[in-house]
Amino acid sequence: MISAAQKIHATASLNRSRWFASQPESLKQALLARAQTSEIAAGQWIYGSGDELNGLYGVISGSVHLLVTASGQETRLLEIVPAGQFFGQAARFGGGPRLVTAIAGERSTLFFVPHQALREIAATQPDVWPNFTELLYGQLAAALILASLALSLPPRLRVAARLAVLASWFGSTGKKETQLSVTQSQLGEMTGLSRKTVNTHLRTLEDSGIIACDYARIVVRDYRRLRTKSGMEFLL
């Protein structure tokens, strides 16, 4: 259970998720009533690949890194989940163990609703499962977009497109500037490119005034131009 003050903070953050913001108030309140929150340190393990699907997570503050094991035992950064977004799945829909490892990218506050609590909500709101299917569909759609970027775009566009996707997750819509908590090395992992190659293309975007590179972060100064430059105009 979380306090009234924590509920207010969690609601304000999670309403940045298009999925959560679009849900009926009855479902939001049911999730908040059964949620647990926890403070975790940078680098702290949340769950691992192969673990049981035990519930739904959201990021209230900070960020979470999703890692995937590639060839052999090599682990690569797949995605950065910022504050206001959800990750993980419930056992009702997963159909198997977790596919990625989740760790805190920085000091973060997490929102967690166990699978049993989701079942309790469904018992009182029988039509609720399609709402969670909608969330899972959104996660799968995002994964397909990331796969298509890696397969179809040349390096220059791949870097710009990956930044556009990250910026949409970090809430660039309607903002003058958005700070992305991502390093050039991490961007290289997510695009399958070397840090040197990523740096070259970032400098081009910076010279155009679209972004600014800073220590351990990238500032998106013109999200609309970034979307156009990358061919990702369909992102909201």
Report on this model:
It is built from 10 helices and 11 strands. It is of the alpha+beta class and 236 residues long. The two termini are 34 Å apart. Helix 6 runs antiparallel to helix 7, helix 7 crosses helix 9 and helix 7 crosses helix 10.
- Poorly predicted parts: none
Helix fraction, binned, reads 40-55%
Widest sheet, order of strands? 1-8-3-6
The amount of beta strand, in percent, is 15-25%
User: Judging from the principal axes of the Cα atoms, what is the shape?
Assistant: globular
Overall pLDDT, averaged?
88
Our Rg estimate from Cα atoms comes to: 18 Å
Core attributes:
236 residues; alpha+beta; 4-stranded antiparallel beta sheet; 10 helices; 11 strands
List the helices and strands and how they pair.
Layout: H1 4-14, H2 18-21, H3 25-34, E1 36-40, E2 45-47, E3 55-61, E4 63-69, E5 75-82, E6 86-87, H4 91-94, E7 101-104, E8 108-114, H5 115-124, H6 129-152, H7 155-169, E9 178-180, H8 184-191, H9 195-207, E10 211-214, E11 217-220, H10 223-230
Helix pairs in contact: 6-7, 7-8, 7-9, 7-10, 8-9
Task: Provide a brief overview of the structure.
The protein is α+β, with helices and mostly antiparallel strands. It has helices spanning 4-14, 18-21, 25-34, 91-94, 115-124, 129-152, 155-169, 184-191, 195-207, 223-230, and strands at 36-40, 45-47, 55-61, 63-69, 75-82, 86-87, 101-104, 108-114, 178-180, 211-214, 217-220.
